[in-house]
Every structure is written in structure tokens, then in C-alpha cells.
Amino acid sequence: MGALIPLIPLIELSALPEGRGRCVRTAGLDLAVFRIGDAVYAIDDSCPHNGASLSNGRVQGAHVSCPAHGLRFRLAPGCPGNAAALQARTYSVRTVDGTVMLDAVEPASPGNPTSL
Ligand code: FES
């Protein structure tokens, strides 16, 4: 396990439109952050297939599709992984006083591409 990332602010919840991603660069990470209903999610912004920005992907339910070739990823942390070579890391986030925060307590886990 690498060093823990401290709890850090990512984006104001009010700046995160429903069902669309925002790229947030912080702490050496490029994250795609999503708001879906009352939930917020963060995943590596770079698609493991060929590096497209997942923050520009289309959201369906709690999944995002890569805008380049359509690989789908579950956004929720802790989903069981498959296709080890094509996983995007997800991160635990929470909203504190209207700000989406990267949570350092729970370790990051790989996302789960569900189809190409
Ligand atoms: S770059 Fe994402 S599926 Fe190809």
C-alpha cells in the first residue's frame, strides 16, 4: 500500500452538475468526479485502454463510458474487479459542508470495466 493521501477538497458540490463529470487535478492525481443523485464518485480520469478523459464520458446509472471507445466503468469503490489490464482506480469521496472531499481513510480500489 502506498502513502495515504490526506483528506483534501476536490470541488464544490454546487459546481458539479448532475450526471456529468468534472476533471479535478490535485495531489498528483487527475480525477474524474461525478455527482449522481445524492452520491458523488471519483475515478482516475485516464482510461486504462488508451488514456481518454473519463470525465468527458457518458454517465448511465452508476457507470461511466469512455468517450473514445466505450469501455464502461463502475464508479462505486469496492466493486469486484475483472479484466485486470483495463481497470481504472476509484476513490472514496464524501461531501463535507458542500465540498466534495477525497477520503484518505478508505484505500482506493480498482474500478470495474463492464464492457467494451
Ligand atoms: S481510450 Fe477508453 S476505451 Fe479506448
Could you write a compact summary of the structure shown?
The chain contains no helices and 12 strands.
Would you mind describing this structure in some detail?
The protein is mainly β and 116 residues long. It has no helices and twelve strands. It has strands at 8-12, 21-26, 29-36, 39-44, 58-60, 63-65, 72-74, 89-91, 93-96, 99-102, 109-110, 112-115. Strand 6 and strand 7 form a beta hairpin. The chain is globular and about 35 Å long. It has a five-stranded antiparallel beta sheet with strand order 2-3-4-8-11, with no helix packed on it. A four-stranded antiparallel beta sheet has the order 5-6-7-12, with no helix packed on it. A three-stranded antiparallel beta sheet has the order 1-10-9, with no helix packed on it. The chain has a single domain (7-107), classed as 3-layer Sandwich (Rieske Iron-sulfur Protein), CATH 2.102.10. The termini are far apart. The chain binds FE2/S2 (inorganic) cluster. FE2/S2 (inorganic) cluster (FES) is lined by residues 47, 49-50, 52, 66, 68-69, 71.
Q: Descriptors for this entry?
A:
mainly beta, five-stranded antiparallel beta sheet, four-stranded antiparallel beta sheet, 12 strands, globular
Mean pLDDT: 84
* Topology-level CATH name: Rieske Iron-sulfur Protein
* Total domain modules: 1
Q: Write the CATH architecture name.
A: 3-layer Sandwich
Helix and strand composition category:
mainly beta
Order of helices and strands: EEEEEEEEEEEE
Tell me about the biggest sheet? 5 strands, antiparallel
Write out the strand line-up for the largest beta sheet, numbering strands in chain order.
Answer: 2-3-4-8-11
Oligomer: single chain
SS elements, strand count: 12
Strand portion? 35-45%
CATH class bucket? Mainly Beta
